[in-house]
């Protein structure tokens, strides 16, 4: 199957999953739009792959479930994390961090304390997915069963955010900490891929609340950031993910900036065994995206601004 044919199959299935069930094959406007998107998408992939191809393990880009979207559409739908006005503090190297030995590789998934990759679909709720993922893992690290907690509850009830229209991870953490809301199981408050009215539960209802959180700037201190991950669990970060639309695998080293944060994700580990050390980053775009739903982002250079705003959750 050539690139054009494969693009058509991905384009068609993506439209169906987005709810566009009536595609008129003989519609001139449809075909004109399709041809324009095919050309732009393939040119974009060629451009992204033309740089730094000599570098070992560098990221590669191509056709995936987002290829049918123009970059402006992709950003408007999926990149809705907002930088918070809450203060972020330069990371103070604590004595406990200084004494932590840093292994060459570590991944919380190996400890069976990271839930499966979820899919935010057409909801701009990445900020909620990353925060809930951190709460789930931190609770499991404490020795409790790993549970799928409700992302929809955070989307609907975090009054200082905007639901599927976007939000801030720090605002969500501040809300969880201030209100001591108990997150319920996902089965009790399932994900609907749209904002809704907040469903309140009685104070006697079982659930999980947090005891606090930290928010630091680890730029230029990524080894300390890695030690924080070892001590506290998976870390909530916000990144510039514009070029992630076309990511297929490899280590992301270019095509993104610090200071341009627009997407929230969860770091579960790191790998320094190869020539290019990288963070292991869980996304919320489904397991068919990237490396089984994960991205690998180069460590040590604040690539995509990954160390600019880093939060840990305490339960």
From TrEMBL:
| Domain of life assignment | Eukaryota
Q: CDD domains of this UniProt entry?
A: Peptidase_C1A
Where would you find this protein in the cell? Lysosome
Which reactions are catalysed by this chain?
Answer: The recombinant human enzyme hydrolyzes synthetic endopeptidase substrates including Z-Phe-Arg-NHMec and Z-Arg-Arg-NHMec
The record's keywords, sorted A to Z, are: Disulfide bond, Glycoprotein, Hydrolase, Lysosome, Protease, Signal, Thiol protease, Zymogen
Annotated GO biological processes are:
proteolysis
One GO MF annotation is:
cysteine-type peptidase activity
For this protein, the Enzyme Commission number is: 3.4.22.42
Keyword Hydrolase in annotation = yes
GO CC field: lysosome
Checking InterPro entries in the record gives: Papain-like_cys_pep_sf, Pept_cys_AS, Pept_his_AS, Peptidase_C1A, Peptidase_C1A_C, Peptidase_C1A_papain-like
In this chain the Peptidase C1A papain C-terminal domain maps to 102-314
* Entry similarity comment: Belongs to the peptidase C1 family.
Q: What does this protein do?
A: Proteolytic enzyme possibly involved in normal cellular protein degradation and turnover.
The protein, known as: Cathepsin O
- Per the UniProt entry, what species is this protein from, by scientific name? Oryctolagus cuniculus
